[in-house]
What we know:
The structure is a single chain. It contains 15 helices and 22 strands. It folds into 3 domains: about 210 residues, FAD/NAD(P)-binding domain (3-Layer(bba) Sandwich), CATH 3.50.50.60; about 120 residues, FAD/NAD(P)-binding domain; about 120 residues, Enolase-like, domain 1 (2-Layer Sandwich), CATH 3.30.390.30. The relative contact order is 0.12. Strands 1, 2, 3, 4, 5, 6 and 17 form a 7-stranded mixed β-sheet that branches. Strands 8-15-9-10-11 form a 5-stranded parallel β-sheet, with helices on one face. Strands 18-19-22-21-20 form a 5-stranded antiparallel β-sheet, with helices on both faces. The protein is globular. By secondary structure, it is α/β, with parallel strands linked by helices. α7 links the parallel β10 and β11. About 35% of the residues lie in helices and about 25% in strands. Bound molecules: flavin-adenine dinucleotide. Its cofactor is FAD. One of its GO terms (cellular component) is cytosol.
Amino acid sequence: MKYDYDVIIIGSGPAGFSCAMQSSKFDKKVLVVEASEDTFGGTWINSGTIPSKALRETARIIQRFQNQFEDLAKEKAYEHHQMADLLLYKNKILRSKNDKIENDFRKNEIDTIRGFGKIKDDHTVAVETSEGETKEFTTEFVMLSTGSKPIKPKGFKVDHDKIMDYTSVLSLSHIPRRLVVIGSGVRALEYATTFSNLGSRVSILNEYDSFLPFLDHEITDQLKTVLEKQKIEVFSNAEKIEIKQNTLRNTTEVKYQLRNDKENGRAHVIETEHVLYLGGKQPNTENLGLKNVGVNTDKEGYVKVDEDFKTSVSHLYAGGDVIGYPAMASSSFSEGRIASCHMFGIEADNVTTDIPFAIYSIPEIADIGLTEQEARERNLDVTVGRAYYQNITQGDISKQEDGLLKLVFETDTLKLLGIHIIGERASDLIHLGQSVMAFGGDIRYFINHVLNYPTYSEAYRIAAFNGMNRVYKAGVKYKKILKKS
Ligand SMILES: Cc1cc2nc3c(=O)[nH]c(=O)nc-3n(C[C@H](O)[C@H](O)[C@H](O)COP(=O)(O)OP(=O)(O)OC[C@H]3O[C@@H](n4cnc5c(N)ncnc54)[C@H](O)[C@@H]3O)c2cc1C
């Protein structure tokens, strides 16, 4: 062989992991370089996706249990549960995932090395180990999957004690009575509802004028109701955020202004126990040696790739957070796999159009395709069908009555164009609709097929009937709709 390896992968998160696994299945010689001294899996396993979901799961279990029994419903989780126990649950999951990934590498004969990987020249990767040693390996292809890190906030410093980020929140010693979440995105909502369900009083400071503006407007309305019930306040247009410790009162003071208050310069202050900063992220491209070979990046530093995840240099590929949007573990898995396929001459479809999104708040939110407002902006003649969880038997049984599943479909053909869900299991539920959409199906699918009962999937059937009725009322003959296609 001309080189030491067929592919060297820098970073072992979901993009790197899936590229490694796929390449090994093509019988290729693979080396994974990982900067962390004791873990594989990056943000995915160790600080982001999995730990946040594990912690959320504990809050969800507690919330469901308490909801089931009226006399428990008013109690605060922190009165009965210790943070240490919740973190123990999370730590077990992380250990098990770390063992599994190491096992997968071993079983598939994927070589690994710990150290900071850097592109030295066209076909050489240099790895600096923690002992200060530099080792060099040659390779035909390189996969850049170095992920991202949080952008440092302006106006205050994350001290990982009173002011935490998504890494330090995983070492909290207790459930805070009061928490201010600073962030505008999905993760802010996830952590806000997790802690609110553990009994914390939570406020969100959002720097933009609307919160999660990409959601369908009816999902946003439902979300507002849910947040009100959980007593979570969202302050949008928040700016000039400053944080200081009040040692006399032993609290953390978060001072901010709302943009509309600018004229009179009014400042607002929230006294809190902890602050969780969940701002934006930036790609890990520093000192990677991209300039050594001429890899193009955009103005924010994200690596530019084509639809095959190839960079501006033909034997260098990139995937995951380092290339930017959509920057999720779910999409990163596909990107790593597709990159591997293209390296080794296997045709593979790009999957980054029509991908589902999930927000693991309590309750969950998930969507795919067009929102109602997007469809109308495109002058499409669409009708919607709705199913409220309070009308689904499973919602009753599980006492999960807050929720809505909404279908957006073409009035004439009934073709499914979008699905929007807020409610228990939304992140799983979305995939039934996704499949129907992927095959170009219409909403009759949910009526003409038997769905297990009781399940949350029943929502699809109810929403389809609801949509049909609306079409009927709009003048299209009902019999024509239901006739065999
Ligand atoms: C709090 C939180 C919750 C999230 N929840 C979800 C979710 O529910 N669903 C979802 O789909 N996504 C979620 N995400 C996003 C998801 O974690 C990321 O999109 C995903 O992990 C990105 O994968 P990646 O392969 O690009 O990189 P990462 O997972 O970040 O891994 C990159 C790896 O590269 C290593 N590395 C970096 N530089 C070098 C170098 N020079 N040499 C060697 N190694 C290097 C790092 O040590 C790291 O191990 C969440 C993120 C956060 C922060």
